[in-house]
Amino acid sequence: MAQEVTEKIAVTGKVTDVNKEPIVGANVVIESTYIGVITDVYGNFKIEVPKNSELSISFIGYVTQRLTITEPVNLDIILESDMAELDDVVVIGYGTVKKKDLTGSIESVSGDLLVKSNNTNITETLNGNVSGVLVSKSSNRPGADMSMQIRGANSINSSNEPLYVINGVPSYSGMKHLNASDIESIDVLKDASSAAIYGSRGANGVVIITTKGANKKKGFSIDYSGSFGVKTPTRIPDMIGNKGNGLEYVDYRVALWKKKYGDASLSRTDFLTDSEKKRIRNGEYYDWLREISDQSYVTNHSISTSGGNETTSYSLGMGYLSDEGMIGKEQFTRYTANVGIEHRFNDIITTGMSSYISDNKTNHGSQDALLNAYFLPPIVSPYDDNGNYAFIIQPTSSKINPFIQNQNNIRETKAFYSNFSGFLEIKPIKGLSLKSQIAYQFDTDLYGEWIGKYTQQKGGVNPSEAYRSEGRNTNIVWDNILSYQNKFNESHRIDAIGLFNMQKDTHQGSGMRGIGLPYKSDWHAIQTADEITDVSSYYWESSMTSFMGRLNYTLLDKYMVTLTGRYDGTSRLKGDNQWGFLPAAALGWQIKNEGFMQDVEAINQLKLRLSYGKTGNNNLSHNITLTELGLSRYTFGSNGVNGFGISNVRGNENLKWEMTSEYNVGLDFGLLNNRVSGTMDAYTRETDGLIFNRAVGSLNGYSSVYQNIGKTSNKGIELTLNTVNISKNDFYWKTNLTFSLNRNKIEELYGDNQDDLGNRWFIGEPVSVIYDLKHLGIWQADEEAEATKYGQSVGHIKVEDVNGDYNLDQQDFQIIGTPSPDWMAGMINSFVYKNLDFSFDIYARVGGIYNDSFTYMFTAWDNEHWNKADVNYWTAENSSDEYQQVGAQSYHTQVLGQVSGTFVKVRNITLGYALSNSVLSKIGLKKLRLYSQVQNPFTFTDFIGSDPETIGENVNTQLSLYPMTFTFGINANF
């Protein structure tokens, strides 16, 4: 037996394609080892293998063959082209389609990529991985919300958020509550011909999320993913005097006071307090940002099981996430559960159900503790003489101790999300399916805030207060789907679907505030407050009924047609406007399958796509067609009386949906044995009948009215490119690249060809613009005479005088730019060497001008006791052209907040090691991979704040630091 195992057998052979052309560089490897050879220029190979071993013959773009070797043999191997990628299915709404038959613009993100990216909120993973998608972060605090735009902004007043369809339930709840390990795929429907299947809700694009459900795999398996990460602040903004350079701040304080109040001001008692002077003499400086921030931890665990037999399949997944913040009590925790069951009674009847539950809690942290840490100078200490935290730490300033603020200001959100669906499918004859599915979504959130007496808001004087609000939403959807698939005469293929759909959603909530509570009870005993205010409650519901049909027809595997039509009726509108028909058509041409392309070996895939469609945006307020009553409270004697009258806004029963029309042309390609593949898309879309809350004269008792007026357009280009750069026996390198640009424009406003200056809306310009004075630099010494004409001095801010009248006012305002990038790109490079894998992820946004409150606040403000950003200020010795002289009472300081949005990030670097099959078989595992990862290691930008992706964040409520995270993780399959 030992002799039989070790006996070597000589194997020779030749590897060719189906046209008998030799394949050069094909891998011929002994399975489960790294022993092998590659074919020569004639496709020949020679290798010795142990008897009864399995030989693997592979080459990129071709189907791998495996053969068991029992005796010496000369092999003639023919590898067939691997079209598996084209046979992959894409979720297109109410069904799937093979990639090769796809006529619209749809991109998919696999669950594996979501897991590898390790983002707490999976929405962030779409940035740079799906062309045409822009995800904006409100903050880097754990659990912070994110918003998404697909192919730019269509609407001016209404939402531009896409429709999210989670396990068949359409909603606008986003993806924060989802666990990456539970996701099978995310499919982004970008063009109107794809999104038209969702009719009046598809104008902003559609994001279809499919969680892992029951599959037909036999047996039983367990998957586990776990990771532990350490977060540390990176790119902490430079403030004057930080990192122990306290004398730098002292010099700044001296220069500031001299400039503002004269040299004699340095002898004033409020220039420096006695304790500040003492700390300066002793060299005791406090780095507020580095002291208040700290390392924190991220823990993530997911376990899932799946199994089944001939008739029943099931899956179960559970997850836990804890993401701590770096300031105070910030934290996001999430528990998830995912269940799927499918039972096949026979070949005709199948039933199943799925459910997804997510329970999470977000501690938002103190409102302005971090903001105070930026303001406080290094010559101030947080401690009193006894070494305890002091509340008032700078008597000359209004800023209180941020450590005390962290303890006495608590803001929490508890949210619960659930999604349940069940279906019954009947297939009476081959190719025909009747499926009825009912789905129910329920989500609720409870927000509470405690503002203690010893906070910045209360100043240690005013009584504490608490606020509590709660919202509850339900959504029930009933889908009845009739589908038919068939192939005729090997030339015609039909995939048709019909839908009848009903949906109803309800929304309710309440809120109240209590002022003057007798003890610290958070928001759980508001009834004990001295005064209860801001009491409110609401309830509203809406419903929709829809009919939809879609036909996919393919002729000779070359010519494809997709026709879609949806007829929607919504309760949010009135009369005949409740119903609307949304059509779409798309054509596809598989050029590679034409006879004249058969001999073009360098091209493996070439498909041209052309589409047109109309979609709507009914993500509108539920009451815009109604004129509501406004509540006013009056006092008569000792009694309070409620009075009602017409509110300031008049509804309009003639309102229609905002309608979007879009043309899309696309090209799918695969070159050089599919070592280079990708897609290119160009689109132009126009949105008409925008819903405006238009200001009118208040003669009739209201000041504005809703109307359908205005038109916007978006034009853009998108590219997705996948390359296999190296494919050797033991080394593999591939690159995934995305690129997109969008140009947004207001085409019409009120029909009179006039701009709306008050709202900063300009015909021919993007929806959002920065309209202000233009910053030209700083007045220099040789420009003193010119500066005097404007009442300015050397060292002050210089702006452009557009009309040349030496009077800088709104007549000199101009469009500076738009807070949208000129273009975006993402790139992932993946390497595999034997059992090692390595990857890094780069993301870039170029262009765009933003109004950033942080930059403005900490470069423009010259408060005599607060700190400031350590940037290049003008001095007599340093003629900076960026920032004004310290203490200079310059005008037009708002222009300092105009910052570029350009940045390049290395977002993710990962190194992993997978155990070999021989080791796994000994320990009873199917797969085991260990990895280490660092997120956000490098960022290249001119932005002086922490994270250029959060430019414009609300500094009063959302100000955050930027985390670098070091993670160790494990992926195992049993």
How would you describe this protein?
This protein is mainly β. It is 9% helix and 49% strand. The strands form eleven sheets. The protein has a 22-stranded antiparallel barrel. Strands 10-15-16-13-14 form a five-stranded mixed beta sheet. A hairpin with an 8-residue loop joins β11 (133-137) and β12. α8 (369-375) runs antiparallel to α9. It starts with a helix and ends with a strand. 39% of the residues are buried.
Largest sheet geometry: 22 strands, antiparallel, barrel
Indicate the proportion of strand residues: over 45%
Q: How far is the N terminus from the C terminus?
A: 31 Å
The tally of strands reads 49
Number of helices, counting only DSSP H or I runs of 4 residues or more: 12
Q: Please give the oligomerization state of what you see.
A: single chain
User: Any idea what the radius of gyration is?
Assistant: 32 Å
Shape: globular
Return the average pLDDT rounded to an integer.
Answer: 90
Tell me roughly what share of residues is in helical segments. under 10%
Class based on secondary structure composition and strand pairing: mainly beta
Residue windows where pLDDT falls under 50 for at least 5 positions: 1-5
Give the topology.
Elements lengths: L1 H5 L1 E9 L10 E4 L5 E3 L5 E7 L2 E6 L6 E5 L3 E6 L5 H4 L1 E3 L4 E3 L7 E5 H7 L15 E5 L8 E5 L12 E4 L2 E3 L11 E7 L2 H4 L10 E6 L7 E16 L11 H16 L12 H9 L5 H5 L3 E13 L3 E13 L6 E14 L4 E15 L5 H7 L26 H7 E18 L5 E20 L13 E24 L3 E24 L15 E25 L3 E12 L8 E12 L12 E15 L11 E8 L2 E8 L2 E2 L7 E14 L4 E13 L2 E5 L8 E5 L2 E17 L3 E18 L21 E3 L2 E4 L5 H6 L7 E3 L14 E4 L5 E11 L2 E11 L2 E3 L1 H8 L37 E3 L2 E12 L2 H7 L3 E15 L20 E12 L1
Parallel strand pairs: 1-7, 13-16, 32-36
Antiparallel strand pairs: 1-4, 2-3, 2-5, 5-6, 8-9, 10-15, 11-12, 13-14, 15-16, 17-18, 17-49, 18-19, 19-20, 20-21, 21-22, 22-23, 23-24, 24-25, 25-26, 26-27, 27-28, 28-29, 29-33, 30-31, 33-34, 34-37, 35-36, 37-38, 38-43, 39-42, 40-41, 43-44, 44-47, 45-46, 47-48, 48-49
Helix pairs in contact: 8-9
